[in-house]
Amino acid sequence: MVDRLCAFLEQQPELVPLSDLRLRHLQAVYASRQHLFAVAGYAGEVELLQNWNRAAHQLAFKVQRNMPLELDALRWDMYLLLFVDADEVSAEVQKQIENNRFYFRKIVLTRADLAEELLRDRLPLWFGDQQAGARPTAVWFEEAQFLRKLEESVEEDAARQLGADFFANGVQDADELLQLLGEAVTTGGETDAATGD
């Protein structure tokens, strides 16, 4: 079944399998300019509990630690996909593993997660190949939830300045946010006339 997960990753146009790597505790590693995914497979929950740490350490020491300087930014976009050949894993075990953020993010997947639409929901697969100006269709966190929490936490004056539309829809880019805040937006050394500065 771990082969189905690997096949899904191989279908992603930006991901390239790093087939030269020989790693005992990892079945496969895939990389793009934005992400690195490593896959480890287990027959059941007990095997997962006994071995996931070995896969994490191997990815950290054999791959993450040896990344060339040009790929240093990728260190923060690494994901260890821990596939269990079972219909489910206990919520406690999944929480214990996924909440461990040491080195990189860990994601526990089961047979129930193998449907393509579920994998797209669980994995951060946005590669920046959308048309200019388009918002990414897959984001790692729910933007609407973030904006609701932000609205609850900012002072009333700031919320009024940003406006209800901001908290409902967000913004396209940093320049748009700066304009909402009344900050000068400079491009190429010139101040944007829209801000009045």
Low-confidence residue ranges: 129-141, 193-197
Q: Would you report the number of β strands? A: 7
- Give the amount of beta strand, in percent: 15-25%
- The sequence of SSEs as H and E is HEEEHEHEHHHHHEE
Number of domains: 2
Radius of gyration: 21 Å
**Strand count, sense and closure of the main sheet?**
5 strands, mixed
- Strands of the widest sheet, in order across it, are 1-2-3-4-5
Summarize the structure.
Pfam families: MComp1. This protein has 197 residues and is of the alpha/beta class.
Essential attributes:
197 residues, alpha/beta, 2 domains, five-stranded mixed β-sheet, two-stranded antiparallel sheet, 39% helix, 15% strand
Structure characterization notes:
39% of the residues lie in helices and 15% in strands. With 197 residues, it is α/β, with parallel strands linked by helices. It has two domains: 2-122, no CATH class; 143-190, no CATH class. The strands form two sheets. A five-stranded mixed β-sheet has the order 1-2-3-4-5. Strand 4 (78-84), helix 3 and strand 5 form a beta-alpha-beta unit. It starts with a helix and ends in a 6-residue tail after the last strand.
